[in-house]
Amino acid sequence: MLNYKSNWSKNNIYFLLIVISMLALITACGGDSNESNTSNQNQTMKTDPSGLSDWELENGFGPVKKKLNLGPIDKTMAAEGEKIFESKCATCHKLDERYTGPAQRNVLQRVTPEFFMNTVLNPDENLEKHPHSKEMLAQYMTKMTNQNVNLKDARALLEYFRVLDEELKNQNKSN
Hints:
The protein is an all-alpha fold. The protein has two domains: 2-44; 54-174, Cytochrome Bc1 Complex, Chain D, domain 2. The protein is 66% helix and 0% strand. The N and C termini lie far apart (105 Å).
């Protein structure tokens, strides 16, 4: 009878050790999947006090969702962009002076190419959500009008401003 009790105690001890080990293993390795997803998301979508992600803060809101791969300046596209600027933008913007809107020659020194395109393509949402656009509205007291520019035309405008930016940089080097 004594032998039976000692085998039973050993079996219980082994069983308890196995259960405790399994619980420790599950707790250590499993974790809460929502918690790990949230921490991964926070790493890729850091936000500033305004609640915008780093991408939104730097590049605004619109169809341009990744960094543009800008190669050498396309002079033909830039010439088309100049025509678009004259027909859709020059009513409110001048190149070298404040008008209804800010001067535009050095716009690419103030914002990223992606922000420029997103603002041209989606001025309403940027005015509503982006601190820079809100600041421009407060300074100029006029909303940027949606000119219904398509992606191709916005890219041509960007190319035109890349030419102007390059000219400005060359001018500054020679002074």
